[in-house]
Specification:
single chain; about 350 residues; alpha/beta; TIM Barrel; eight-stranded parallel beta sheet; two-stranded antiparallel ribbon; 10 helices
Length: about 350
């Protein structure tokens, strides 16, 4: 016996994709952008990646407003940076309580509706690609739901709470886009590196009721996001010494395409969102100091929205995060231009 109610059978991803298809022009844009992004991780390109956007996508109008602004800045920095908007539609919760993202609640002020949520996130990702020409990122909170967006995403992150999970690792091994494995909440690098080993390898496993064979994903890489110690205190792991330590451990594994993305928020900033500016600048300084770090660090993950900070659900401020606090647009644009300037020196 199971202590749950089976509410309704949801459409399979194939049906949703047929109902809300990509245009041929969007498919062509994504194919070209995917190649460009992959070259950063293989070392064929020296461009720098910014996975940047709201902590969680909460409303279509504000998210699209933000991405349209991002697209205009992308034109200014296209010779140095690749901007990948965060459209994070699944929100992990430490205790399972609170807003779980647009896939659960397309309207955060209303009750959960998973069918409407799946449709809403499909529409939002499709619209972002079609209207801005930018390809987007999302977090793989639920591996079985990835295929609802698999033809749209150009970057996937595996969160700190999911990185030890077998299904996340094996699903990542079957993808053909970069997948970032975050260090776990406890900070153990070896857990993250083992996850990368698993995702870069071939596997046979169960996925959505199928026996599947994955070919391994050589674009799987590390994300440093800081960690929490046994006393619940946050600690960063973006400093020079942290990057060198990870570089050396990574090299010992003999993994393909050594790469790390530095998450400037979460435990690295202690969720003090303004610290993201200083953190990015410190990592850029480390890159100038060390050739190894310069080749190793491929980009930043930055939490950014239209307005500074965060608010409670129903707070009413357009473009202000309802989860973790984010950098506002003015500061975000200035930071993007500063990063591009420093990389061109």
């Amino acid at each position: 016996m199971m202590n749950m109610d089976f509410v309704r059978k949801l459409p399979v991803p194939k049906d949703i994709k047929e109902q809300f298809p990509l245009s041929e022009s969007s498919k062509a844009i994504k194919a070209e952008k995917d190649k460009e992004i992959a070259k950063v991780f293989t070392g064929e390109s020296d461009k720098f990646i910014l996975v940047i956007g709201p902590c969680s996508a909460d409303r279509e109008d504000a998210v699209m407003d933000y991405i349209e602004r991002l697209a205009r800045v992308q034109e200014k920095v296209k010779d140095r940076l690749i901007l990948i908007p965060r459209i994070y539609t699944n929100k992990p919760r430490t205790t399972g309580q609170g807003y779980k993202g647009m896939v659960h609640q397309p309207d955060p002020t209303k009750n959960e509706d998973m069918l409407e949520g799946i449709i809403a996130i499909r529409k939002l990702h499709t619209r972002a690609l079609a209207e801005t020409g930018l390809v987007c990122a999302d977090e793989m909170l639920y591996p079985e739901n990835h295929r609802y967006l698999s033809d749209l995403l150009s970057y996937v992150a595996i969160g700190a709470r999911s990185v030890e999970d077998q299904q996340h690792r094996l699903t990542a091994s079957g993808l053909m886009i970069p997948v970032g494995m975050k260090n776990p909440t406890g900070g153990d690098y070896s857990v993250m590196l083992n996850s990368i080993v698993a995702a870069q390898s071939k596997h046979t496993f169960l996925y959505r009721g199928w026996e599947v064979h994955s070919k391994g994903n050589p674009l799987t890489h590390a994300i440093l996001r800081g960690y929490v110690d046994k006393h619940g205190i946050s600690h960063p792991n973006y400093h020079y010494e942290d990057l060198i330590t990870l570089y050396e451990m990574y090299a010992e594994k003999g993994l393909a395409n050594m790469a790390v993305i530095v998450d400037s928020n979460h435990c690295n900033s202690g969720k003090k969102y303004l610290e993201q500016i200083r953190i990015c600048n410190e990592v850029l300084h480390a890159m100038r100091h060390s050739d190894d770090i310069n080749k190793f660090v491929k980009g930043f993950m930055i939490e950014s929205y239209i307005e500074d900070g965060a608010q409670k659900i129903g707070g009413g401020v357009y473009g202000k995060s309802i989860t973790d606090p984010c950098l506002g647009w003015e500061k975000s644009e200035k930071l993007i231009l500063s990063i591009a300037d420093q990389l061109s020196r």
